[in-house]
Write a structure and sequence with these properties.
two-stranded antiparallel sheet, single chain, alpha+beta, four-stranded antiparallel sheet
Length: 161
């Protein structure tokens, strides 16, 4: 697993599962929250206000938002696991969370990504994540799993370091 490669073990419990990750100075995780529309504007405002209180200005630059084809909102969060837990519990509290999935490995390998990450601002979020979290070991694992033709310019840039 790509996440398990540094010095400090972190155990966390989320969505009825235990996770183990290794701290890379609290490595950024990529989480996908699929959420439903809140029941009222009052609840929507409460959720919005809470999110604005837990996110810094820099945090907001590490979030990608879109909707799926059936009217559900998809929130990609590129932040540390503590922020994921706060968001998770907030969405559960207000009964809007439909699902949560940690996609860190998929993003490190850059496979099966939502097309919103192919261009524009969200591509910059992805590139920033890769430049700060991708390492040579993960790229070598990617070559073993997907072949050398799967490498892209960010992978080559990291390998040349």
């Amino acid at each position: 697993m790509a996440i398990l490669r540094k010095k400090t073990l972190i155990f966390f419990y989320l969505n009825k599962k235990y996770y183990i990750c290794i701290n890379k100075q609290i490595m950024t995780q990529v989480g996908l929250f699929i959420i439903d529309e809140p029941n009222s504007n009052f609840i929507k405002r409460k959720i919005f206000n809470f999110l604005m209180n837990i996110f810094s200005e820099d945090d907001l630059k590490n979030i990608a938002y879109c909707d799926d084809n059936i009217g559900k909102d998809m929130l990609y969060v590129f932040l540390d696991i503590e922020k994921h837990k706060e968001i998770y519990h907030l969405f559960k509290k207000y009964n809007v969370l439909l699902s949560y999935k940690n996609l860190t490995d998929s993003f490190l390998y850059q496979k099966n990504l939502n097309p919103i990450f192919n261009g524009g601002d969200f591509k910059e979020v992805l590139i920033n994540f890769l430049e700060n979290n991708l390492d040579k070991d993960t790229i070598l694992d990617k070559i073993n799993d997907m072949g050398i033709e799967s490498l892209n310019e960010v992978d080559y840039k990291i390998l040349k370091k």
